[in-house]
Amino acid sequence: MMLFTSSLASAKIALEEIRALDPSARLRRWLEPGLGWIELALSWDAFAALLREQPPVFCRHVCPVQITVPLKQDASDLEMLVESARQLNPSLDAAQTFSVQTRLFGEGWPYARFDVNTRLANALTAQGFALDVRRPAQILSVALTPKTGYLGVSRAADNLSDWAGGERRFKTEPEQISRAEFKLLEALETFGLSWPNVGHALDLGAAPGGWTRIARVNGLQVTAIDPADLAPPLATDPGIRHLRHTAQRYLPGTDDTFDVILNDMRVDARDSARSMLTAHRNLKRDGWAVMTLKLPHSHAERVATSALGLLRQRYTLIGARQLFHNRNEITVALTGRQ
Ligand SMILES: C[S@@+](CC[C@H](N)C(=O)[O-])C[C@H]1O[C@@H](n2cnc3c(N)ncnc32)[C@H](O)[C@@H]1O
What we know:
Elements (H helix, E strand, L loop, with lengths): L1 E4 L5 H11 L4 E7 L2 E5 L4 H10 L7 E4 L2 E4 L5 H12 L9 E8 L8 H14 L3 E2 L6 E7 L3 E8 L24 H11 L9 E5 L5 H8 L3 E5 L6 H4 L4 E4 L3 H4 L7 E6 L5 H11 L3 E12 L5 H13 L2 E7 L7 E8 L2
Parallel strand pairs: 6-7, 6-8, 10-11, 10-13, 11-12, 13-14
Antiparallel strand pairs: 1-3, 1-4, 2-3, 5-9, 8-9, 14-16, 15-16
Helix pairs in contact: 3-4, 5-6, 9-10
This protein binds S-adenosylmethionine (SAM).
């Protein structure tokens, strides 16, 4: 058994992604909107191997369920959970580090996520397992609903995200221009992208300028394309060239080349993919690109598939995911090809 998490709007698509990998998988029930409890026909290891080969786009996080525990929402729960964690010892590799990731759903909890994490981690370290909260090799995943707790152990790399439920949160910085910045930060981390030491970025659909700001903070010059205004701190930055054009007007006539292309344009996903096909000749050989694909409420998967198909004509896909900071969109990372 396992739990999977997606955005609320993408829950059914995420379920289909799981069924595409394990056609006999059965949804036991939705524990919460966007949190499905699944009975896999495959073993967890076989399913995890398939996830590595064909990573899903809309499914954000998965974790196995090896034990379920009845809960009362009082202090006795913690003892029950500790006992269950001990029962999971055989699933933990003593030669590898571990961490506990707890999620609490619903109201009325007399204890916090932190309390559960600490109690279970202490119980396991007392038995000789090595805790590493920063880069654990294994995760004890704990999902608590008002009546039932769901626990399972997996390799961190098999959960699709290093964060409980895929919820990657960043601190807000005083200089932050838009919440869109979190999307780019999450994409860089998820897809393992690093900025070149120096270089030039193209930012399509740049306004108000969050992605442009991040590229500047990382030492790149930026050409920002957007008919709309950039935020005042960026408007006077000599490292930014802002052209008040649409991408469709700018791209066909330019021979500029870029180390990085960013694209967060609010346009139909397929049109945005077509702009990226035009921009392909402007991306330097070792360059990379990050873009969002804006999806409609209905047929989101179909539109995403067709936009990804367009992109594959000229790019190699590093990955495509609906990240925690994406709403009705997915984020795609690309490298040039040919
Ligand atoms: C979600 S906002 C971008 C936010 C930006 N990434 C940030 O971090 O602040 C989308 C932007 O796309 C721009 N846009 C829409 N259609 C465009 C087009 N055809 N060419 C260029 N920009 C476009 C809009 O003007 C809008 O500013």
